């Protein structure tokens, strides 16, 4: 069985880290990742950019609405994610709109740019 592990922390805390502090955390995490990667148990690793970069497409009950920010209702749970390679935010919104059209339940698709981190490419 595969598991997605979502890392939650306070952006108010991590956003104040210096480049050196962030680099140390990334190197420390890379050591843990390496063990699982060598065992063939680690898939892609992605770090979401801050919530200020998020866009949400709200659908259900009428015309879909595109809003800035990660505005999912607290009664909703994160159920999964898609990684799509889009040329622009507009293309990512179009993809999300199509998902909303075929999803019978009301909900939200949060659209966040990704920064990909590869342990082999981290500075030492």
UniProtKB/TrEMBL annotation:
InterPro entries: Dimeric_a/b-barrel (IPR011008), YCII (IPR005545). Residues 1-114 form the YCII-related domain. Pfam families: YCII. Gene3D superfamilies: Dimeric alpha+beta barrel (3.30.70.1060). Belongs to the YciI family. This is YciI family protein. It comes from Sinorhizobium psoraleae.
């Amino acid at each position: 069985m595969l598991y997605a592990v979502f890392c939650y922390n306070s952006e108010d805390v991590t956003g104040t880290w210096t480049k050196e502090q962030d680099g140390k955390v990334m190197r420390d995490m890379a050591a843990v990742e390496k063990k699982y990667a060598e065992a063939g148990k680690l898939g892609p690793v992605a770090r979401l950019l801050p919530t200020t970069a998020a866009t949400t497409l709200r659908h259900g009950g009428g015309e879909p609405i595109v809003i800035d920010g990660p505005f999912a209702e607290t009664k909703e749970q994160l159920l999964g994610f898609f990684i799509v390679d889009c040329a622009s935010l507009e293309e990512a919104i179009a993809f999300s709109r199509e998902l909303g059209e075929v999803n019978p339940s009301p909900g939200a698709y949060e659209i966040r740019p990704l920064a990909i981190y590869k342990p082999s490419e981290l500075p030492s």
